[in-house]
Request: fold
Amino acid sequence: MEGGLILLLIPLGAALLFLIVWAVLLNKLAQLSGQVNLTIGTLAAQYEQRLNLIPDTLRAAREAVQAQRDYLDKMLEVRKGMHPGVEPVDLGSIPPDYVPVAVASAAAAAGRQVSESNPAMNVEAYTELQRSMKDTEKDVTAARRFYWAAIAEYNTAVKSFPSSIVAAVHGYRALPTAKITKELETKPDYFGS
Reply:
């Protein structure tokens, strides 16, 4: 009787072990499939950010430079005609931001040496633009690497034994390596060459 029980337990144990291995492989395939979907979404989000963030940052940088240009143009207007023999400019008609420059210009025109405090060029906007572009491209590259790695790991699991049997039974197929549209993959030309 004990021999018959052992003969019965061996196939049951083998069947149980088979089901456990099957379930583990099926769960691994499902996990890898989910990871691929996650990386596709992350990569698409990075491409979308590249398409949206950089033009906004570029627009802000251009506006900052235009404001700086306007400021310098006004300073040039204030300085026009400021040389010896010309009546001093009425400082009451000059915006408060420009008074120090006008005073320094008038003093210089009168032959006095003054140190003028010119506003520093506003390069922060372009520095921010460069940083945003660099960081965004790094993020896109990293997302692309994660995507390729996830696809490779998933395809390896689908094609290797014994998970290839589980994959075939449950409809898991090897994935092509290009899921993102060419329009999103193409790096935009922000400066309109």
Remarks:
- Helices lie at 2-79, 99-109, 124-159, 163-170, 182-185.
